[in-house]
Design a protein that fits this description.
With 488 residues, the chain is α/β, with parallel strands linked by helices. Strand 13, helix 18 and strand 14 form a beta-alpha-beta unit. Bound molecules: uridine-5'-diphosphate-xylopyranose (2 copies).
């Protein structure tokens, strides 16, 4: 087997997205001897990565600007020349997107692997000598097998020893969470490397060893590595659906979700993380990974296991539905022409990502009821909101004719709340914690409501400002209101 040398000198990463961008920026920062080229077919995105003004990077992540600033155009390069970059690389990371299929076999469950396949074929065609291919995208179990088969076909068709191409495939799933990506990359709980080729594993391990201690670098088989990623995300999502299901019981019984979560989380066997009740999990991974797991289980006739995991997604959808229904109930079961301010459209704070954001379903339902939405988010653009709502409307066959006339993105919180009947907090941005409710109440139309799905308001301050307040996972104080609305 032809091996270029024992140390990796050139890395290529295909996909300059939320995963590829920050991951490669940190590798380049920590390994100045390695040339890291991040390539993408999306020219706009690459242009933004190369923008002189670092505020224009395509991805917002705390700490990312500093890391990019140190290494960009030193040993970190962003470009669109995918083939050249693959040809020169000893190691190629696949970080392309793998959304859920929207049609055909496994529609709305299985991952759409078309980009991974395109990427594997491109690597097969452009690579020279021996190339280590690292699966970074979160993929269904045994996808590495598909990548291997595509690459091995190329090895077999190499004409002679000189242009012989050989490949090793590794799985190296990403555990970074958006909003804390840089910190997660710098201080990972573990780095997982799956594969069979010892030398390839060693080379990848050497890269991470520059800043991660050896006891945190875990080596497993390819399939264990792929399944561990899906399982980790499924477990995290499961905790959120568990606490969200309990939030509904709290509202009904008078228990308080924050108190319950604290009491439960102090049990060291359970732990206190991922116990924040909210509007449901969003993001590009949780739903997709669980649905992949469900698909895998059904494929292997493990229906009981599939049903178990499917329930996590169902509770997540139900949480969003019941929040919307609560708003309809409180606003006299009539939203026609009423203005509602939505504070936060990103799926969590500190990111500009809206993929699978609970705001999409909730906003769409409110629009269906005839309300007018005044949306505010410190990082999400108008185009992103527009695309998210359009795709949701298409997938759910909703009427789009007046869609864009009925919502507007506002620059400030004050602008967003003017003349509204209700304020709905969906993302836990810090600026929403510090809202001056007295000022806000004067801009709204009474009787005005605040719906806090992230539990970031100070209830006393909101009520003192003369506003009605509904907080997720808490029983309402004003029994009268509840009585009136249940009678209507
Ligand atoms: C990642 C993982 O890859 C995905 O599997 C996981 O579920 C979520 O995180 P992410 O980086 O968030 O994806 O996706 P995205 O921000 O969409 O970036 C992917 C990039 O790959 C895009 O910029 C896209 O243009 C690029 N791409 C896609 C290519 O360069 N070539 C292709 O053939 C396909
Ligand atoms: C997740 C995983 O955490 C990460 O390891 C994996 O690599 C990618 O998927 P991410 O989706 O970026 O990361 O964010 P995460 O912090 O996990 O939040 C996911 C969703 O769960 C968000 O919508 C968040 O608001 C929600 N969440 C999280 C809660 O509702 N309550 C919590 O206690 C924690």
């Amino acid at each position: 087997m032809i091996r270029k040398n024992n140390l990796v000198k050139n890395i290529c990463c295909v996909g300059a997205g939320y995963v590829g961008g920050p991951t490669m920026a940190v590798i380049a920062d920590k390994c100045p001897d390695i040339k890291v080229s991040v390539v993408d077919i999306n020219e706009e995105r690459i242009k933004a990565w190369n923008d002189e003004n670092l505020d224009n990077l395509p991805i917002y992540e705390p700490g990312l600007v500093e890391v990019v600033k140190r290494s960009r155009n030193r040993n970190l390069f962003f470009g669109t020349n995918v083939d050249d970059s693959i040809e020169n690389a000893d190691m190629v990371f696949i970080s392309v997107n793998t959304p859920i299929k929207s049609s055909g076999l496994g529609a709305f469950q299985a991952s759409d692997l078309r980009w991974v396949e395109v990427c594997a074929r491109r690597i097969g065609a452009a690579a020279k000598g021996h190339t280590i291919v690292v699966e970074k995208s979160t993929l269904p179990v045994r996808t590495a097998e598909i990548i291997k088969e595509i690459l091995e076909a190329k090895t077999k068709s190499s004409r002679n020893d000189e242009d012989k191409k050989t490949f090793s495939v590794l799985s190296n799933p990403e555990f970074l969470a958006e909003g804390t990506a840089v910190n997660d990359l710098l201080n990972p709980d573990r780095v997982l490397i799956g594969g069979e080729d010892e030398l390839a594993i060693e080379k990848l391990k050497n890269i991470y060893s520059k800043w991660v201690t050896n006891n945190k670098i875990l080596c497993t088989s390819l399939w264990s590595s792929e399944l561990s990623k899906l399982t980790a995300n499924a477990f995290l999502a499961q905790r959120i659906s568990s606490i969200n299901s309990i939030s509904a019981i709290c509202e009904a019984t008078g228990a308080n979700i924050t108190e319950v979560a604290k009491a439960v989380g102090l049990d060291s066997r359970i732990g206190n993380k991922f116990l924040n009740a909210g509007p449901g999990f969003g993001g590009s991974c949780f739903k997709k990974d669980i649905l992949n797991l469900v698909y895998l289980c059904r494929y292997f006739d493990l229906d009981e296991v599939a049903n178990y995991w499917e329930q996590i997604v169902q509770i997540n959808n139900w949480q969003q539905t019941r929040i919307y229904e609560k708003i309809v109930e409180k606003l006299f079961r009539n939203l026609s022409g009423k203005r509602i301010a939505i504070l936060g459209f990103a799926f969590k704070a500190n990111t500009n990502d809206t993929r699978e954001s609970p705001a999409i379903q909730i906003a769409s339902n409110l629009l269906e009821e005839g309300s007018i939405l005044q949306i505010h988010d410190p990082k999400v653009s108008k185009d992103q909101i527009s695309n998210s709502l359009e795709v949701y409307h298409d997938n759910n066959k909703l009427d789009k004719s007046n869609l864009n006339d009925n919502w507007i993105l506002k620059d400030t919180i004050e602008d967003a709340v003017i003349n509204t009947d209700a304020v709905l907090i969906l993302t836990e941005w810090d600026i929403y914690r510090e809202i001056n409710w007295v000022r806000i109440s004067k801009l709204m139309r009474p009787p005005s409501w605040v719906f806090d799905t992230r539990l970031i308001t100070n209830p006393q301050k909101v009520r003192d400002a003369g506003l009605n307040l509904w907080r997720l996972g808490e029983k309402e104080n004003d029994i009268d209101n509840k009585f009136n609305s249940s009678k209507s």
